[in-house]
Amino acid sequence: SSSVGISEQKTIYNESTNWNLLLNQIDSYYLPFGINYTEEYFTETNINFTNFTVIAVFDQVYGNGGHSIDITNITEYENNIVVTVENLLTGNGSSVVTQPYHIVKIPKTTKPIVFE
To answer: Is 9 left (phi over 0), alpha (psi -120 to 50) or beta?
Structure first.
């Protein structure tokens, strides 16, 4: 595994402790550059976990730009919730280190969440 970036993962957040650890981990990469990344680029960071669940997917770190990881569908069934994750963009020639991610907030659920 790489020493830079967030571990490649598909994670469900149902409480603030681990969510805040993730935010702090993301911010730690940018603070040396004077950037508060999550404050500047995230629509929302203070989640009410009584009412919401957060789904976060992080792809690997790439040595070029133009990649994406995309939550393209979330379907609730009787016994679970299925989250479809795809890579819609597969890279270009730009010489920059990137790590695609996608984070969404859904209404609170107790159903198992399955990734496909």
So the answer is: beta
